[in-house]
Fold:
Amino acid sequence: MTPDLTPTSPPEPPRTEGAFSAPPPASASRPRFPLLLTLAAAIALLYYGRTFFITISFALFLAFAIRPFVSLLERAGVPRVIAILLLLFVLIGAIVLLVINVTAQFNQFYVDLPRYQNRIREVLSQFTDFVNRLRERMGNILPEETRAVREVKISESPLAATRAFVAQVGETLHILLYAAAVPFLTFFMLKDREKFGRIIDGMLARHGRFAGDVTGAISRTMSDFALGLSFVMAIMAGMTTGALMLLHVSYYYILGPLAGLAITLPYVGVIFSTIPAVAVAFFQYDGQKALIVLIVYAVLQFIEGNVLTPLIVGGRVRLFPLTVMLAFIFWGLIWGIAGAILAVPLTSAVKVVCENVRGLEGVARLLGDPDVAT
Structure:
């Protein structure tokens, strides 16, 4: 039996659509709209549920910050519940003491305000003269019909004032209520952290895109970052308070902690903490004292930005300056002042998650440099 020597025709090349390429696989041609819709839904959820998420975020930040101290007390033989309660009581006691001192200095400000009236009137008179001269010069340029000034009287009825006062009280109570929930949430987060970690790990294990111990990486990085940032805030507040005390500038219990808190506001926090201190020094003394306060603040902020933060916080979470600014704008728009304060920690957490999710490593590199391995 002779073999079949009939030549076989070469395999038919794949059909192409158009003149250049074959149709992409079905998986590659899926629309991107679901991803955009998911992102839009997430942003809407963060915006409309901002009160809930802000409370959870502050509780998480506090839990990350005091977790190393809880672990230290546990290694010393203190039960976890006692260690957490002890640290929370110390923290709440420090906050209460600060609030008492701040309230006392606010009362002192109202007592001292009549002494500042002459100084304030002088400054306002100079400013008014400058504005009037400017208006006169502008009036010579503008047409005659635009120079007339209309007098507008604004009156507010007692009922409207009462409604505004009640609304303000309700808003204050609303904030205090959710602020009081932060320590309780922190307690349970620290008490059952292994249980929550196992649950989250189990949920993430169902998806093959997560690489390594995501919850462990987030916990380690954010604990180091939150603890370091808290130390820098405390040191900055202490140094500023001490400097203002030495300079005999009043209200140092208000201005000092404000300088520490301002660290959490990228770029603009420096302005918000410096202007009140310079203004107080100017009204209390003169322009020379205000200049001295300005120089002291500039030196302290230089130390914070070039010594304290690099040394204590280090390279735990290294975000690009543009990323920090965009995060500040984004979180500030959807969460207000609380979002501006939490902008860097929240964006840092997003970066750590992206570093541990397959396919999102590029997003992490877009947000900042790789974190230093611990």
Residues 80-141 form the longest helix (62 residues).
